[in-house]
Design a protein that fits this description.
- With 226 residues, this protein is α/β, with parallel strands linked by helices.
- It has one domain (2-223): 3-Layer(aba) Sandwich (Rossmann fold).
- The chain has helices at residues 44-51, 74-84, 100-110, 115-128, 144-157, 174-189, 201-204, and strands spanning 2-13, 16-28, 33-37, 59-64, 67-68, 85-88, 162-166, 193-197, 209-214, 217-223.
- The strands form two sheets. It has a six-stranded mixed β-sheet with strand order 6-7-8-3-9-10, with helices on both faces.
- A hairpin with a 2-residue loop joins strand 9 and strand 10 (217-223).
- Helix 3 (100-110) crosses helix 4.
- The chain is globular.
């Protein structure tokens, strides 16, 4: 499903290149659940943003379902991102002017889902994440954990082929965190491919494979026995 070949990401300052990702090679099969771990500054979020087509490497090849992403024009790449990928951001990235309901509904509007189906799917998310009472509130009226739940609901509602999650449980209490990981596990069992960045060894082990990054390189991969 995903194939990265010789991916480099760096920033140039006169004659010095600072590498964020250094010769990363990675394949992710359809239906896999992969965790990415590593210390701060290892390149985890940058890798996730490249997978989500929100950032570009300086060098290398990136194939999504055998399509060469880096050779696509902006419109085609945006379309692929909208229709295939659900992204859970560490900093929520909710739209301030929209209510909880409207934030969750946004991906369905992009996908031109009909009104009655949109209503049903948003209602299902509000119920699943226990945020029905928050549906008319704006992001600045929500606590951090509630904003995170809205962000996850927005990523899941469009039923994407691939969910990318950057520290998805970082702002949740332990019970909410477990519930989200169980939800991801269920979605994965139903066929959704999931890649998450996490600092938590416990949360990482919900995946079938853990990728360890250090200084922009993959230094270890481990299979997780479920």
């Amino acid at each position: 499903m995903i194939k990265l070949q010789n991916i480099f990401k760096y920033y140039s300052n006169r004659f010095i290149k600072t590498y964020v990702l250094n010769d990363v090679n990675l394949e992710i099969e359809p239906g896999e659940f992969v965790s990415i771990m590593g210390p701060s500054g290892a390149g985890k979020s940058t890798l996730l943003y490249i997978l989500g087509m929100l950032d570009e490497p300086n060098e290398g090849e990136f194939y999504y379902k055998d399509q060469p992403v880096l050779k696509m024009n902006e419109r085609k790449r945006s379309e692929l991102h909208r229709t295939e990928i659900g992204f859970v951001f560490q900093q929520y990235h909710l739209i301030d002017e929209l209510t909880t309901y409207e934030n969750i509904e946004t991906p369905l509007l992009y996908q031109k889902v009909k009104g009655s189906e949109r209503k049903g799917r948003v209602a299902e998310m509000l119920d699943r994440f226990s945020i029905v009472a928050k549906k008319d509130l704006f992001p600045n009226q929500l606590a951090g954990g509630q904003q995170q739940l809205v962000g996850i609901a927005r990523a899941v509602v469009a039923r994407p082929s691939l969910i990318l999650a950057d520290e998805p449980t970082g702002n949740l209490n332990s019970e909410q965190g477990r519930e989200i990981m169980e939800l991801f596990k269920k979605l994965n069992q139903e066929g959704t491919t999931i890649v998450q960045v996490t600092h938590s060894e416990e949360k990482a082990r919900y995946a079938g494979r853990i990728i360890h990054l250090l200084d922009g390189r993959i230094v270890k991969e481990e299979k997780v026995s479920q």
